[in-house]
Amino acid sequence: MNLEEKQLSFDYKFRGRIINLRVDEALLPNGATATREIVEHNGGICVVPITEENEVLMVEQFRYPYSEVVLEIPAGKRDGDEEPLEGGKRELKEETGATAESYTFLGELYPSPGYCGEIIYMYLATGLSYGETNPDEDEFLNVKKIPLDVAIKMIMNGEIKDAKTQAAILKAERILRK
Q1: pLDDT at residue 178 above 90?
Q2: Has residue 138 got a pLDDT over 90?
Q3: Domains of the chain with bracketed CATH
Q4: What's CA 60's distance to the chain center, in Å?
């Protein structure tokens, strides 16, 4: 069965600094039409930085949509047409002050494919060295070192709720175990 849908029309409802919102009319495989609400996002990058002591360098920050402090790996949005790896290096340095000797691509993550076109590019970073942080002017972070095995337990018991952090740490652990 053909599963593809075809865009018939679109209407932007909002254009912002981080996202655009549009409403599309789509032709369905059976010939009917449906409305699709779409969030456009330039994409993001996340990095699992692993220390020599097998710890994950993580950040705590207040996440406004949830009204809570969330424990995450360093991450951020791509700047324009920035290459994902360069964005990952930039975010790691800005948020933690760290740079890495080696990066391993962990894949792409579609965080909410039902309505959002964002793609998050995930990396493992090893061979860390440390310098000064340089967060964005509206970004306030606490940097934490969490042993990798503890981070896995925190994911499995629901203490780490962020999807990109869960997926990237679990993938990184699998790679490091080999």
Answers
A1: no
A2: no
A3: 6-41 (no CATH), 44-177 (3.90.79.10)
A4: 15
Looking at residue 62, its amino acid is F
Whether 109 contacts 75, CB under 8 Å: no
pLDDT digits (tens, 9 = 90+) for 24-76: 999 999 999 999 999 999 999 999 999 999 999 999 999 999 999 999 999 99
Contact 170, 164 (CB under 8 A): no
As given in the structure block, the two tokens for residue 144 are 């934490």
User: Which amino acid is residue 93, in one-letter code?
Assistant: K
Q: Burial of 159 by CB count in 10 Å (0-12 exposed, 13-18 middle, 19+ buried)?
A: exposed
Q: How far apart are CA 63 and CA 133, in angstroms?
A: 19
Contact 42, 24 (CB under 8 A): no
Active site residues per annotation: 137
